[in-house]
Design brief:
The chain has helices spanning about 15, 20-25, 65-75, 95-100, 120-125, 140-155, 165, 200-220, 230-235, and strands at about 1-5, 30-35, 50, 60, 85-95, 105-110, 130, 185, 190. With about 240 residues, it is an alpha/beta fold. The strands form 3 sheets. It has a 5-stranded parallel beta sheet with strand order 2-1-6-5-7. A two-stranded antiparallel ribbon has the order 3-4. Bound molecules: adenine. Adenine binds next to strand 5.
Length: about 240
């Protein structure tokens, strides 16, 4: 998958792209991620990309022109089929299901806003998919873009080692994940549940299903009745 991130702060991404799964996915050729500096598409003096809002009010608004120029440049450079995504608190909520859908696209162009957001004509003229990572306001779209990148790239087939680990993770079955333990069997007075040391795989599987159900009911009742693992598998 080809992913282009259009941002005023490309250096913010170095750490996230240079470690762990995102690093490996790029090394293995499953994700080609490039950073595009919006300022490079400014036609203004001093490479300005923002201006005060018409009608007054606080902050600055990102000009439509450099955004259109950047997207049109990318479209002409082999990204004709990429899905355009704009990160904004006013977008549709990023969920595991949406991440799974985005992971099947040939490419993504992520638009990161800053300040008071983009001139509305970016949305009107480019019709991006507007995505929010939650009901809180960050300083810009960069951290949301990193969250989206991370969650989407790990769903690209072959990026994670085992399909099993994907299937059992929180949300992929519409439920939270069951608790995990590793050695030692007892730590500071807290013992690993006997069933996990029993070697009885059927009992272990049943215990895990019950734990996942119970956790979901207690912590995220809003998820109950979500997709079951067998429904998710066909995605
Ligand atoms: N930009 C600022 N806050 C955001 C959020 N919660 N989600 C996506 N983009 C944002």
């Amino acid at each position: 998958m080809i992913i282009d991130v259009v941002t005023l702060f490309p250096s913010m991404f170095a750490g996230v792209l240079g470690e762990s799964i995102l690093k490996r996915a790029q090394e293995q050729g499953q994700a080609r991620i490039s950073l595009v500096n919006l300022r490079d598409f400014s036609r203004e003096k001093h490479k300005k990309v923002d201006a005060p809002p018409y009608g007054g009010g606080p902050g600055m608004v990102i000009l439509a022109e450099p955004v259109f120029e950047a997207v049109e440049h990318l479209r002409r450079s082999g990204r004709a089929d990429s899905t355009l995504v704009l990160l904004t608190p006013g977008g549709v909520r990023l969920t595991q299901a949406l991440a799974g859908e985005l992971a099947r696209r040939p490419g993504l162009i992520l638009l990161c806003g800053h300040y008071e957001g983009f001139d509305e004509r970016v949305s009107l003229g480019l019709s991006p998919l507007e995505v929010s990572i939650g009901d809180y306001v960050l300083t810009g779209g960069e951290i949301p873009a990193m969250a989206l990148l991370d969650t989407v790239v790990r769903l690209i087939p072959g990026v994670l080692g085992s399909a099993e680990s994907l299937l059992q993770e929180s949300f992929s079955g519409g439920q939270l994940e069951y608790p995990q333990y590793t050695r030692p069997p007892e730590f500071r007075g807290m013992a690993v549940p006997d069933v996990l040391l029993s070697g009885d795989h059927e009992r272990i599987a049943r215990w895990r299903r019950e734990q996942a159900r119970e956790r979901t009911r207690a912590r995220r009742p809003d998820l109950e009745g979500g997709a079951r693992p067998d429904e998710m598998r066909s995605q």
